[in-house]
Structure formats: structure tokens, C-alpha cells
Amino acid sequence: MLTEKRWSSLKELSDSCGRSLAEMVDDLKGFDAANAQITAWLGQKEKMISFLGPLAAEPVMIRNQIQQLEVSDASLLIVCDIYLCWIVILYLLSSMASIFER
């Protein structure tokens, strides 16, 4: 009777850990996909910045370059927010994993 209860308790704990690990794997896959997207996006932005070239001397060209940089900065802030969210998620997952190791 006692061994059956202990076995049932261990099985439930094992199942719970298995589900948590499966969720962590899914989260890490999402992080990897986001990393690939961010890497591609950063590559595109590096190309865009390189096309800007040196600072222009004419007011119209300067305004054009400033507008391009403003668009780039806004996009970069959004990507940084997403990246920071993923870092927090990974931190929380590692904290959960340490709880299960005890």
C-alpha cells in the first residue's frame, strides 16, 4: 500500500517534470527562432546603415538620412524589447529547472 502511494507520487512528479521539460524545449525553440530573426534583421540594418554612407552636406540629404535613422532606431527598440523578454523567460526557466533538481 505504502509502495503504491510512493510509486504514484513519483510517477506524478516524473510526469510533471516531463511536461515542464517539454514546455522548456518549446520555449527554447521559440528563442532560437527569434534569435534567427533578430540576426537576419540586424544584418539588414547593417546593410542599410552602410548604404547611408558618410554624412551628407546638403540639407535635403541630411533630412533624408535622419529619417532613415529614426525608422531604424524605432525598429531596433522593438527588437531589443523582444530580446529582453526572451532573456527574462530563459532566466525564469532556469530558476524552475533548479527547483526540479532539488
Describe the structure.
By secondary structure, this protein is mainly alpha-helical. The protein has one domain (2-101). Helices cover 92% and strands 0% of the residues. It has two helices and no strands. It has helices at residues 2-52, 59-101. α1 runs antiparallel to α2. It is rod-shaped. It starts with a helix and ends with a helix. The model has no long low-confidence stretch (mean pLDDT 76).
Walk me through the topology.
Blueprint: H1 2-52, H2 59-101
How many domains make up the 3D coordinates?
1
Largest sheet: none
Q: Look at the helices and sheets and give the structural class.
A: mainly alpha
| Rg computed from alpha carbons, rounded to a whole number of angstroms | 24 Å
Query: In total, how many beta strands?
Result: 0
Please indicate the percent range of residues in DSSP E strands (runs of 2 or more).
Answer: under 5%
Q: Mean of residue pLDDT?
A: 76
Query: Share of helix among residues?
Result: over 70%
Q: Helical stretch count?
A: 2
Query: Low-confidence stretches at least 5 residues in length (pLDDT < 50)?
Result: none
Which H/E pattern describes the elements?
HH
Tell me the distance between the termini. 26 Å
| Basic shape | rod-shaped
